[in-house]
Write a sequence for this structure.
């Protein structure tokens, strides 16, 4: 098979997205007695953007008589079905670590914000009250409104909007590639899945400048090779891992992410791996975008050879 990098656009992705999310299904509703009022409940959602986009977790509650929401996407399906399951989720403000205390019934969440500082923790129990389900439907309506605003963006005006666009791209591509839709990120022929990760704002990363000798915080955390290379010096048919960086991100194909990158991305770190396919090696690049607030977002594709 001929291997080549396909450049597909974000616009196709966004035109598909709102229609897909209109099919959202509430799988279950959960309630906590020790969470803040603006996150008293959460709903586990199936958004239907992709069969393999993972579950979504929508925390919701009321504050000042307004419905408040936080929306997290997971690289896991049905994580709540087994005792002891652990999962991580992230949104534009922070991340959580979840632990299933009792399958289908009780889940503990720990929430973290900047510099890895724990913000809060709460235990949620599955809840079947009719009022809570109606509340969840109202919260989903708020979420749909937010997503429609994201999908209509031509240029992100804030770091929050830029991060929401990144998370939206993750939603639509999922973790197992199953279609030919445009997603705004590089896709490889033979690509079957991808990993995602994010880190919260960290002061050490925010103030760091990458040094070619690697004696800096960004190199220590995000460089996978032993040394930095220049992109033009990486062999076309090699082995192992090579890492390079740039201040002018090229991983975003076009659309609002590409348009906003110069305002919100500090560095693009690329870790290139060579995958042996028959008699040749294919260079597959994973991207980590170091944002100007000291946070990061990573996208790592994987391919299979036939």
């Amino acid at each position: 098979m001929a291997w080549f990098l396909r450049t597909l656009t974000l616009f196709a992705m966004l035109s598909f997205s709102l229609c897909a999310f209109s099919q959202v299904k509430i799988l279950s509703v959960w309630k906590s007695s020790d969470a803040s009022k603006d996150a008293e409940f959460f709903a586990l959602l199936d958004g239907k953007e992709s069969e393999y986009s993972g579950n979504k977790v929508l925390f919701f509650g009321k504050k000042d008589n307004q419905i408040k929401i936080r929306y997290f996407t997971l690289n896991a399906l049905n994580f709540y079905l087994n005792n002891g399951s652990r999962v991580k989720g992230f949104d534009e403000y922070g991340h959580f670590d979840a632990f299933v205390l009792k399958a289908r019934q009780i889940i503990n969440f720990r929430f973290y914000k900047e510099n890895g500082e724990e913000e809060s923790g709460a235990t949620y129990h599955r809840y079947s009250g009719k009022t809570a389900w109606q509340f969840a439907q109202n919260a989903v309506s708020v979420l749909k409104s937010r997503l429609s605003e994201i999908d209509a963006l031509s240029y992100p005006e804030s770091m929050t909007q830029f991060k929401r666009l990144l998370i939206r791209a993750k939603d639509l591509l999922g973790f197992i590639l199953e279609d030919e839709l445009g997603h705004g990120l590089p896709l490889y022929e033979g690509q079957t899945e991808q990993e995602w990760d994010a880190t919260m704002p960290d002061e050490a990363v925010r103030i760091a400048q990458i040094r070619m000798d690697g004696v800096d915080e960004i190199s220590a955390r995000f460089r996978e090779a032993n040394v930095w290379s220049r992109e033009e010096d990486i062999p076309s048919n090699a082995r192992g891992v090579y890492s390079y960086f740039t201040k002018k991100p090229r991983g975003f194909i076009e659309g609002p992410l590409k348009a906003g990158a110069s305002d919100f991305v500090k560095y693009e770190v690329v870790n290139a791996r060579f995958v042996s396919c028959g008699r040749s090696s294919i260079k597959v690049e994973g991207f980590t975008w170091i944002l100007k607030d000291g946070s990061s977002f990573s996208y790592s594709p994987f391919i299979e050879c036939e």
Remarks:
- The chain has two domains: 23-151, 159-303.
- Helices lie at 10-21, 130-151, 159-173, 203-207, 217-222, 256-264.
- The first helix runs from residue 10 to 21.
- DSSP finds six helices and 15 strands in the chain.
